[in-house]
Write a structure and sequence with these properties.
The complex is a heterodimer of chains A (about 190) and B (about 425). By secondary structure, chain A is α+β, with helices and mostly antiparallel strands. In chain A, about 25% of the residues lie in helices and about 25% in strands. The chains are: A alpha+beta (about 190), B mainly alpha (about 425).
């Protein structure tokens, strides 16, 4: 009886060990098949882009490409900056700054721009709802109810600091990592 | 139905020899020639055959188009234009494939509404119905990925919006979208993988269709009365009766199909898709293809990103639960005076959502989209469970034969009537 029992246990062990081996093997096989779809190293490479701001007049905006995404750069007028600063934080659907240099901080205008260069707003020009490019870059565009940007796809309104104010978008537009390399030149990335 | 034996008789020695080794001819004969079909099937029952035709047309034209298509961000747009202009008969094949997608969805919607009207999802056809829902989901995925391939503005921004739906998933949302894209935005890499999947999925659909037909042939077809087949006189052999009816309906369907192919190939498309994909400019007004519009309207009706995505997916997935949401024992809406109204209200709701999905998301359109989104779900979650409990069904004929030939007043007078369910209160006609 004792011997039979031992025989039984030994077989169980072999079955469990073999199943576990096959299971791990199956997962190891699956991993490259899933992983091949993720962005590869060449796509991940954090390319940097330098932009000369000299020709951008006050009130104008330009769009440039960085990592395959459009980057909005707007030279805001004094009125637009003042309007962005006046906003009560309680009125913002998304209270976080969403800026690479002010992660997790409140969404004040100061936390979305660089100190001393408040008139320059640099951000990823992609609506945080479903990825459309909001209108508002060219002077003739409709800029929405808050004078910033308006996404025509599903009606999201952004203010002059690129913060979501009304509509289905859940987050403020992202501010990428960037710095001023000279007085009129920025490097993004 | 499944127990029905094939009357196949192998004629010559070769077919006899073959039949003993692989009785496939016997099976096909039993399932598609002398298979008993209800004698009262109307033209709504011809869409199964029409849909099979659509799938075959899409696969055949798709394979030859793939011989000329270049699945890359740089080459895709030009190669599709080249197919339309240079490739021998490319204009014909490309138009058939593009129009075929519209016709496929047109036919599948009628097929689905037919099922909802005549209660084709009720026991014992739940698995049959759920397999149909799976086919519909696969069709939506295939249609969506196929639409990206011409790589025009609508293609590009359609993919951008739809793949961004997954970014609404909490925590892992961004990882999922980047995994789908193979980058940080939609690029040629995304197009390439969508092409591979667009080529694969029709064959998956074909496999599920085989299961769908198998399940159909186990339970047997439903019919306009919703009554079970009881006697041999309730049925006719599939060939020639049902086959001829199917072929006639198919011929009419193909006339409509051909009219679009030859006279209005772009009528159902968008002019914006003749502009090459540009990641820096979103078209002023993004709309999906007409067959996604009702779901798109539901997505936009909910004022929250995650909520909208959940509502949109629920709108499709709720179909899988219909066999258990509908509490009525009577299958056909023909004998359900209240459900019939709910059904037509639902059809109107779907059309209204389709109209609203094509309109910009502002003002009164948003309000109406919310009202109709509520009505869409109310059909499944309120009308279906409650009507089954409170509605008094109309008297049903005792059999399919009686429904077709009228009451045969012989020795059965006084026998119990209304054999299906007990809720009926039969009255003299």
């Amino acid at each position: 009886m004792a011997e039979e029992q031992a025989e039984h246990n030994r077989r169980d062990f072999v079955v469990i060990a073999a199943s576990a081996f096959a299971g791990v093997g199956a997962l190891a096989t699956l991993w490259p098949l899933v992983q091949q779809m993720n962005p590869d190293r060449s796509a991940q490479a954090l390319a940097t882009t330098e932009v000369d701001l000299e020709p951008v007049e006050e009130g104008q905006a330009i769009t440039i490409m960085w990592r395959g995404k459009p980057i909005f750069v707007r030279n805001r007028t004094a009125d637009e900056v003042a309007a962005a600063k006046e906003v009560d934080l309680g009125d913002l659907p998304d209270p976080l700054s969403r800026a690479a240099f002010a992660e997790g901080e409140p969404a004040t205008d100061a936390n979305r721009t660089l100190a001393g260069k408040e008139k320059w707003l640099v951000m990823v020009g992609i609506c945080t709802h479903l990825g459309c490019i909001p209108k508002g870059q060219s002077l003739s565009d409709t800029k929405g109810e808050f004078g910033g940007w308006f996404c025509p796809c599903h009606g999201s309104h952004y203010d002059t600091a690129g913060r979501i104010r009304k509509g289905p978008a859940p987050r403020n537009m992202d501010v990428p990592p960037y710095e001023f390399v000279s007085d009129t030149k920025i490097r993004i990335g | 139905m499944s127990d029905h034996a094939s009357t196949y008789e192998p004629k010559g020695p070769v077919s006899k020899w073959f039949d003993e080794r692989l009785p496939i001819a016997r099976m096909m004969h039993g399932q598609f020639v002398d298979f008993p079909t209800p004698r009262n099937l109307n033209y709504m029952w011809t869409f199964g055959g029409i849909l099979t035709f659509c799938l075959v047309v899409q696969i055949v034209t798709g394979i030859v188009l793939a011989m000329h298509y270049v699945p890359s961000g740089e080459g895709a747009f030009d190669s599709v234009q080249k197919i339309d202009r240079d490739v021998n008969y490319g204009w014909l094949l490309q138009n058939i494939h593009a129009v075929g997608a519209h016709m496929f969805f047109f036919a599948v919607f009628i097929h689905m509404f037919r099922g909802l009207y005549y209660g084709s999802y009720k026991a014992p056809r739940e698995i049959l119905w759920i397999l149909g829902v799976i086919i519909f989901l696969l069709m939506m995925a295939t249609g969506f990925m196929g639409y990206t391939l011409p790589w025009g503005q609508m293609s590009f921004w359609g993919v951008t919006v739809i793949t961004n739906l997954f970014s609404a998933v909490p925590i892992v949302g961004d990882a999922i979208t980047q995994w789908l894209w193979g980058g940080y935005s939609v690029t040629g890499t995304t197009l390439n993988r969508f092409f591979a999947l667009h080529y694969l999925l029709p064959f998956v659909i074909f496999g599920v269709v085989v299961l769908h037909v198998w399940a159909l042939h186990v339970a047997g077809q439903n019919n306009p009365t919703g009554l079970e087949v009881k006697t041999r006189s309730d049925t006719v052999p599939m060939a020639p009766y049902a086959v001829m009816k199917d072929l006639f309906a198919l011929a009419v369907f193909v006339i409509l199909f051909a009219w679009f192919v030859f006279f209005a190939p772009d009528y159902l498309g968008h002019a914006d898709n003749y502009i090459e994909a540009n990641p820096l400019a979103t078209p002023a007004h993004i709309v999906p293809e007409w067959y996604f519009l009702p779901f798109y309207a539901i997505l936009r009706a909910i004022p929250s990103k995650l909520g909208g995505v959940i509502a949109m997916f629920s709108a499709v997935l709720i179909l899988a639960f219909v066999p258990w949401l509908d509490t009525s024992k009577v299958r056909s809406a023909k004998y359900r005076p209240l459900y019939k109204w709910a059904f037509w209200a639902f059809v109107f709701t779907c059309l209204a959502l389709g109209y609203l999905g094509a309109k910009p998301a502002e003002g009164a359109y948003v309000l109406w989209a919310r009202i109709f989104t509520f009505l869409y779900f109310a059909y499944f979650l309120l009308a279906m469970p409650l009507l089954g409990l409170y509605e008094t069904p109309r008297p049903r004929p005792r059999s399919i034969t009686e429904a077709v030939l009228g009451r045969q007043d012989d020795n059965t007078a006084g026998a119990p009537v209304g054999a299906v369910g007990a809720a009926a209160a039969p009255e003299k006609r």
